[in-house]
Amino acid sequence: EPAQRVLFTHVSRPQFEMTITFTDHGERTAVGWRQRFASADECRRVAAFAVPANEQNLDRLQALLHTHDGA
Question: Quick check: pTM over 0.85?
Answer without folding.
Answer: no
